[in-house]
């Protein structure tokens, strides 16, 4: 079976600083892969490479079999992308942003968006720029689920979220991926709650992958430890 | 889908376009008040004579206004796109990336041109109420390069705004200023006429600059 995401021999430097050398990984259909790593280990960089927003010095990534820098509009329509910090077009209000996005996605699920928005205690005409980080994350999540993409790429989705919003996000993601046809690739530097969500765990350190294996297997190998404990053990405290 | 893209651009710029329309209207009214004041003080015959012999600009207030309109509109459109790299969201839409940028640029150029092409006939028709067609024509020739600077400034500012790297952005500003200065050379009415096609050509060429900046953005240049 062709993997949904396939990265081969990715090597990238920022100036003289090595980010990765010969990075290889795949994400199979129906899996939730969590790319975990400390700040500055290149998690956002790989998201940028995957979406064609950064040309690595060497290597290639393919999404749905297409090269990262030549993603067709159809493939882009199948990928839901969450940028770091839940960035959205914040000059829109809640109604305007729905009106904007719905024309692009044939499978647009209006109820998925408004279902999440209802949970916010705001008026539909409130501008996104005036909302808190948690509220903005819910707007971004609502837009992603309304698109009903086959692949979700989430860059540090937990950033800036309090435990309540983080848990909400995790629950929605689990629900989204439960039928096995949807694939999720996410990065996070907050490891709490991750073992509840991800099928495969990939821990990144400066320049290399420290570990890549199914979360279940990892947890069985380290009984009485949380994923966070394992992460700290592998990467060190600081 | 293109309707949605235009809707986004409209939401970003509608307040700015409204402000610019009010400014253009205000400056237009002020210009006619100044002309009427000159007619009252000097008399229409003296003013005609001055217009023929000294070739003064009847609408000097409009010299830099189209330029400012172009710059402001581009800033309103593209600064939010580059803030927090929102352009990634726009380019991630299920549409051809070049067509996305083309739509955004067309929107801006048409918005600037609409503002200018509504203003220009009003100014010239108003002038024609008091002055002969030769003087109106001379003023049209004076206003043409200033008004052409509007879309040129818009496209050059878009090029600068979409450039992802600050150093390159500054390097883009320098030729941008030089190119825009061609629209403001001192010349007698009509002196610009042979040069006008080149200015139009410059506007057309400037249309493609933003594609280069976007390609650099896509490559992840920082």
Can you walk through the features of this model?
The complex is a heterodimer of chains A (238) and B (222). With 238 residues, chain A is an alpha/beta fold. Chain A folds into two domains: 1-77 and 151-157 and 173-238, 3-Layer(aba) Sandwich (Rossmann fold); 79-149, no CATH class. Chain A has eight helices and ten strands. Chain A has helices spanning 43-50, 73-77, 94-102, 110-118, 133-147, 163-177, 215-221, 227-235, and strands at 5-14, 17-27, 32-37, 58-63, 66-67, 79-82, 151-154, 183-188, 200-205, 208-214. Chain A has a six-stranded mixed beta sheet with strand order 6-7-8-3-9-10, with helices on both faces. In chain A, strands 2-1-4-5 form a four-stranded antiparallel beta sheet, covered by helices on one side. In chain A, helix 3 (94-102) packs parallel to helix 5 (133-147) and helix 4 runs antiparallel to helix 5 (133-147). The radius of gyration of chain A is 18 Å and the shape is globular. The longest helix of chain B is centred in the first third of the chain and has 41 residues, at 2-42. The radius of gyration of chain B is 20 Å and the shape is elongated. Chain B is mainly α and 222 residues long. Chain B has one domain (2-219). Classes of the chains: A alpha/beta (238), B mainly alpha (222). The A-B interface holds A 14, 48, 51-55, 69, 73-74, 76-77, 79, 81, 83, 85, 87-89, 91-92, 96, 99-101, 103-105 and B 1, 3-4, 7-8, 11-12, 80, 84-86, 88-89, 91-96, 217-220, 222.
The first-level CATH class of the largest domain in chain A is given as: Alpha Beta
Low-confidence stretches of chain A: none
Low-pLDDT residue intervals, each spanning 5 or more residues of chain B:
none
Classify the beta-strand content of chain A into a percent band.
Answer: 25-35%
CATH topology of the largest domain in chain A: Rossmann fold
Counting DSSP H or I runs of 4 or more residues, the number of helices of chain A is 8
CATH superfamily of the largest domain in chain A: P-loop containing nucleotide triphosphate hydrolases
Secondary-structure-derived class of chain A: alpha/beta
Biggest sheet overview of chain B: none
